[in-house]
Amino acid sequence: MLVWVIYDISKDKARNRVSKYCKNYGLYRVQKSVFLGDLDKNGIDEVFLQSQELIDSEDSFYIFPMCDEDFKKVKIAGIAFDSELVTNRIRTKCI
To answer: Which domains does the chain have, with CATH numbers?
Structure first.
């Protein structure tokens, strides 16, 4: 399932660990505190639970599922991400 992971975490150590969790689960960094990619139900639960243990009451952490049909409707201005890389339509990107 395609998911957006968005967070605002005040402590550097916790924020860095959440970022590492997202990368380890194969999510693509869209912005500093925004990741996007495919996760199954277990992956969503694991990222959520691991991150939930790190955040404080003033922090926020969100996982938004998004269907493929709605993802195709996303509008982007400015610097964009590679939607084919994010949705695993391509496995590697050569520059």
So the answer is: 2-86 (3.30.70.240)
Q: Which residues, in sequence order, are CB contacts of 21 under 8 Å at separation 6+?
A: 47, 50, 51
User: For the whole model, what pTM was predicted?
Assistant: 0.79
Q: Which residues are CB-contacts of 56 (< 8 A; sequence separation ≥ 6)?
A: 10, 11, 14
Helix or strand holding residue 45 (H, E) = helix 41-52
- For residue 36, the one-letter residue type is L
> Residues 22-48: what's their mean pLDDT?
94
CB 31 within 8 A of CB 19: no
Which amino acid would we find at residue 42? N
Amino acid at 69: E
